[in-house]
């Protein structure tokens, strides 16, 4: 973090600390860390809980990942009032013009907007955004509980690549480790889409001749496993 960034953060914190009123955080909590929508059903829903002691407006939206910007989901309701301690069901409807050939990845954003203070006192209302993945699954695609095993890892000189030849979205941690040697390399993001090939950031150390890649996968339903060691082939 450079000095400019540190100074900017410090100024923002001072504004909050010196604000002549209160600071609140509004939180809407989805019931699951990921939404899986089966094309055969055509829609899926998720309950969102208002964890705050006051009513709030729940604003829901769908975000595309940069690699897939096709609009595939409708949602209802986009905005709803939720009482404190209550839940709101949000439905997501698939609207693909053609049958899905592979799994697709979207992001769902749930944001709570707190009501204005009726007393007229100045206050800062911090709106907490919950951002979770949504996986859209083709109707006849078999469930694979270990999709990370389909990834193909290869090395050419000091460059390491990963390719996903499967129809599954693979979710995993940002970084992987080359074995032996323990060299850490950065994937740049936490998913590999079907058909993608990514080049990792960093350089492998030729002197260690790595034979495996240790990755830290996340299951379809959002649970992290300890690790998985995949073979590293040399091109």
Describe this structure in words.
By secondary structure, the protein is mostly beta strands. It has two domains: 26-137, Sandwich (Immunoglobulin-like), CATH 2.60.40.10; 147-234, Immunoglobulins (Immunoglobulin-like, Sandwich). It has one helix and 19 strands. The strands form three sheets. Strands 1, 2, 3, 4, 5, 6, 7, 8 and 9 form a nine-stranded mixed sheet that branches. It has a seven-stranded mixed sheet with strand order 14-13-17-19-10-11-16, with no helix packed on it. Strand 10 and strand 11 (159-163) form a beta hairpin. The longest helix is centred in the first third of the chain and has 16 residues, at 3-18. It is elongated, with a radius of gyration of 22 Å. Residues 1-25 have low confidence and may be disordered.
């Amino acid at each position: 973090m450079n000095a400019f960034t540190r100074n900017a953060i410090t100024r923002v914190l001072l504004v909050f600390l010196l604000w002549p009123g209160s600071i609140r955080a509004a939180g809407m909590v989805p019931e699951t860390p990921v939404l899986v929508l089966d094309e055969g059903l055509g829609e899926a829903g998720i309950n969102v809980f208002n964890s705050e002691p006051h009513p709030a407006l729940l604003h829901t939206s769908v975000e595309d990942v940069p690699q897939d910007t096709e609009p595939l989901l409708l949602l209802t309701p986009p905005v709803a009032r939720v009482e404190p301690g209550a839940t709101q069901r949000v439905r997501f409807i698939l609207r693909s013009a053609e049958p899905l050939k592979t799994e697709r990845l979207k992001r769902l954003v749930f944001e709570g907007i707190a009501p204005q203070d009726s007393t007229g006192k100045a206050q800062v209302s911090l709106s907490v955004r919950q951002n979770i993945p949504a996986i859209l699954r083709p109707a006849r695609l078999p469930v694979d509980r270990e999709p990370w095993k389909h990834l193909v890892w290869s090395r050419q000189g000091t460059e390491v690549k990963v390719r996903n030849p499967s129809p599954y979205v693979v979710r995993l941690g940002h970084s992987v480790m080359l074995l032996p040697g323990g060299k850490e390399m950065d994937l740049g993001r936490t998913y590999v889409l079907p058909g993608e090939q990514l080049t990792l950031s960093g350089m492998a150390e030729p002197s260690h001749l790595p034979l495996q890649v240790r990755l830290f996968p996340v299951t379809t339903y959002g649970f992290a496993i300890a690790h998985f060691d995949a073979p590293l082939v040399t091109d």
